[in-house]
Design a protein that fits this description.
It is a single chain. The chain is mainly β. It starts with 10 loop residues before the first strand and ends in a 17-residue tail after the last strand.
Length: 163
């Protein structure tokens, strides 16, 4: 019998002089049924650093040693590592998800992380033109910047004039 191709991860055994694929089964460990976070909600400030922790339990309620991956939604709005280190850079309310994956099932838990908005530092007004003339209509653009040097587009600005 000639072997024409190999399969990655496959095993063969010799049976009566011929190579026959053997079924190799990995030892299945306990499957995650539930993930628990230390708290359901957390309040943070911009610049805080917090390490989140989670526990994984099987269907019988026994704690099992299994890696947990963390991520935030909306993504990229709350920087965090897969290991659960959170470093907020902007204010807002975010959902953090902790997930444990087994070979047959997965389990997850969610928590709300509220990050307080930093105080307003200044308002930057663009210089649209160097000179203004009587009767000209000029539209200025203002950008609100907080103490973390982040733009705050949700802050409304009212314009008034005085003569």
């Amino acid at each position: 019998m000639k072997i024409t191709r190999w399969m990655v991860g496959a095993a063969c055994v010799a049976v009566a002089g011929a190579l026959v694929p053997a079924v190799v089964q990995a030892q299945a460990g306990p499957e995650p049924a539930r993930v628990e976070l230390g708290q359901a909600a957390m309040n943070l400030e911009v610049g805080d650093t917090v390490q989140l922790e989670a526990k994984v339990f099987d269907a019988d309620g026994n704690e099992i040693d299994m890696p947990v991956r963390f991520f935030a939604q909306p993504r990229r709005q709350l920087p965090m590592t897969r290991g659960g280190m959170v470093i907020p850079v902007r204010g807002g309310e975010f959902q953090v998800i902790a997930m444990a994956r087994g070979t047959q099932s997965s389990a997850r838990a969610m928590m709300t992380v509220s990050v307080a908005f930093p105080a307003i530092d200044h308002i930057a007004i663009d210089a649209a033109h160097d000179r203004f003339y009587v009767g000209a209509h000029v539209r200025h653009r203002a950008t609100v910047i907080d103490e973390a040097q982040m733009e705050r587009p949700e802050v409304k600005i009212n314009w008034t004039t005085s003569d």
